Amino acid sequence: MRKDLGVFPGVFPMPVLMIATYGEDGSVDVMNAAWGTACGMDKVALCIYGHETNKNIDRTKAFTVAIADAAHVAEADYFGIVSGGKVKDKFARTGLTATRSKWVNAPVIEEFPLTMECEYVETVNTEGVQCVVGRIVNVTAREEVLNDRGKVDAAKLDAILFDQFGRKYYKVGDEAGGAWKAGKKLM
Ligand SMILES: Cc1cc2nc3c(=O)[nH]c(=O)nc-3n(C[C@H](O)[C@H](O)[C@H](O)COP(=O)(O)O)c2cc1C
Questions:
Q1: Which residues of 43-80 are buried (b: 16+ CB within 10 A; e: fewer)?
Q2: I want to staple 68 with a disulfide (CB 3.0 to 4.6 A). Which of 16, 17, 163, 178 is the partner?
Q3: Hey, which of 11, 25, 28, 32 would you mutate to test ligand 1's pocket, going by the most ligand atoms within 8 Å of its Cβ?
């Protein structure tokens, strides 16, 4: 038996993306965004609108996108419930560390394991939806999340996921199979 549940975005899991920008006074702002995805080999699209972050991107034409990890779940959530427009020392209150990206006019938050450094490309508007598209000009990662071939090891990221059904964060679980591999037995 199945049950109709009505209309809501039933996508699971959602990422926990940390969008970092510079404010007008050079202060660091970070917001939490679940409505974001890769949309090309060198592009991300973020459905973010009406935030201090949007104003910052309009001005600086740049932002960084980091993957939040389990060690920083409190900071990640805080970045989603406090606005840099209202709380001027929003970032400073977390005690996290920001350094200027070598590639774009945006900060890199050192504690997050993996960060995409993006230049603003365009804002796509459709019915009730506004998506900020960025071009990834570099990815920077903490060395401890790399394997011995220098590639990102997803298990080492210790990333968190957003559950919009229960409004909770989960840690990424175990591997279930190889992509482009597990289905081969059915071919
Ligand atoms: C789990 C979570 C996910 C969120 N995802 C989004 C999102 O995808 N798009 C968006 O516009 N706001 C999202 N928000 C809300 C912003 O993060 C929040 O309004 C934040 O305070 C904006 O910060 P700013 O004003 O400093 O830019 C999310 C908040 C939480 C807690």
A1: ebbbebeebbbbbbbeebebbbbbbbbeebeebbbbbb
A2: 16
A3: 32
- Mutation choice for ligand 1 from 31, 53, 57, 109, CB with most ligand atoms inside 8 A: 31
Pull the structure tokens for residue 155. Answer: 């298990």
- Mode of pairing for the β-strands spanning 160-163 and 14-15: antiparallel
81: Cβ below 6 Å to ligand 1?
yes
Alpha carbon nearest to ligand 1 atom 7, residue: 33
pLDDT in tens, 134-177: 999 999 999 999 999 999 999 999 999 999 999 999 999 999 99
The answer to whether the beta carbons of residues 72 and 112 sit under 8 Å apart is yes
In sequence order, which residues have a C-beta less than 8 Å from that of residue 143 and are 6 or more positions away?
none
Model confidence, pTM? 0.98
Q: What is the pLDDT of residues 115-145, one digit of tens each?
A: 999 999 999 999 888 999 999 999 999 999 9
Is the CB of 74 within 6 Å of ligand 1?
no
Spatial CA neighbour of 158 closest among 170, 143, 166: 170
Domains parsed from the chain with CATH numbers = 14-186 (2.30.110.10)
How much of the chain, in percent, has pLDDT values that exceed 70? 100
